[in-house]
Amino acid sequence: MLVDFERLGYLSDQRYANALVAQRIGRVGKRKIERDLHGKGIAGDAAREALSGLAARDELADALALWQRRFGHAPLDERDKARQVRYLVSRGFSASIAFRVLRAAGARTDDDSPIS
């Protein structure tokens, strides 16, 4: 029965993958979208084609916009910094992107510390 639905065009992994990517873009990072597609059983060409549109997106800008909506201020202390980094990483952004967002917000990161 499902094969008949696919043959008639009622079911399409490609359409589903494209819709999932469109729904999540800007709210989560590329890595999380890839995990979500894999978790839903979408793999291979359908996933690659749906993700191909993300290559041109500026992931740092997406992470910065998400961070701005959620926090909007530089971390107050190390605990707050860790919380903000965890938030971005849990949304599928890499740790390096998360630290770049915090640096752009004016927070000191370990990379900024003087070497002693």
Fraction in beta strands: under 5%
Overall number of domains? 2
- Largest sheet entry: none
| Overall number of strands | 0
Mean pLDDT: 87
Structural class: mainly alpha
Using only CA atoms, what is the Rg?
A: 18 Å
One letter per element, helices H and strands E, the order comes to HHHHHHH
Poorly predicted spans: none
Helicity, in percent? Answer: 55-70%
Q: Report how far the terminal alpha carbons are from each other.
A: 68 Å
Overall shape: elongated
Number of helical elements = 7
Name a few traits of the molecule.
116 residues, mainly alpha, 2 domains
Structure description:
The chain is mainly alpha-helical and 116 residues long. The chain has two domains: 2-52; 59-108. The chain has seven helices and no strands. The radius of gyration is 18 Å and the shape is elongated. The N and C termini lie far apart (68 Å). The relative contact order is 0.12.
Summary?
By secondary structure, the chain is mainly α. Helices cover 63% and strands 0% of the residues. It folds into two domains: 51 residues; 50 residues.
Topology:
Elements: H1 2-8, H2 13-24, H3 30-39, H4 44-52, H5 59-70, H6 78-90, H7 95-104
